[in-house]
Design brief:
single chain; 199 residues; alpha+beta
């Protein structure tokens, strides 16, 4: 495998003393896991943040080998991680995507939708500007993975958006996260509590 492409960094877990294994979403190859040497070092630590858009150079000698990757930062989501609502939203959508997407299956629609959602979270003046897009992304993820998805609510009606957000909790947990280890839904619960304060 040899791939150089923009990628959305979804998760990074420590490996060894300074490396990380990152899961990244690319448009052409879908989700790819890769070893990043020095990922916890001073230079790469600000790059290896979930939600960041990176230019990834991913290489492996065979399809069975974990690829190695080098990353360059294209767009940082770091400044929004100090804001409670954007941080909770970025954490949730990245954790969900990293957990449920199968590796190396291209989903160009999901890549575009996630990229647009992250831009909206970081650029909208308030959560009312991106909550509808978040619900639409969850519905699209359910649909793309074969579990229906529902009807998108009117983004201008925040009460309808919140009702749809609440209704999606059960299918996400039942269909997408049923056999997964770890409590990924905790990130969604935190986001829901923060969104509820706006209503």
């Amino acid at each position: 495998m040899q791939l150089r492409a923009p990628a959305i960094l979804l998760s990074a877990r420590p490996h060894g003393e300074t490396a990380v294994i990152a899961r990244m979403l690319t448009e052409a190859e879908g989700m790819v896991a890769a070893y990043i040497a020095g990922g916890r070092g001073r230079v790469l630590r600000p790059v290896v943040i979930p939600g960041n858009l990176v230019a990834a150079d991913i290489r492996s000698r065979s399809d069975t080998q974990l690829p190695f990757a080098s990353l360059e930062l294209v767009r940082s989501r770091g400044p929004w991680l100090s804001e409670p609502l954007p941080a909770a939203a970025i954490s949730w959508v990245c954790a969900l995507s990293a957990t449920v997407m199968p590796e190396r299956n291209p989903y160009p629609g999901l890549y575009s939708a996630l990229s647009g959602l992250l831009d909206a979270i970081c650029n909208a003046p308030s959560a009312r500007g991106w909550a509808g897009a978040l619900v639409a992304y969850e519905m699209l993820l359910l649909r793309e993975l074969g579990y229906g998805g529902g009807t998108r609510p009117d983004s201008a009606d925040f009460a309808a958006v919140m009702a749809a957000f609440e209704a999606l909790a059960q299918p996400i947990e039942h269909y997408l996260l049923a056999d997964r280890k770890g409590d990924v839904m905790a990130a969604r619960t935190l986001l829901g509590a923060r969104l509820a304060r706006m209503a």
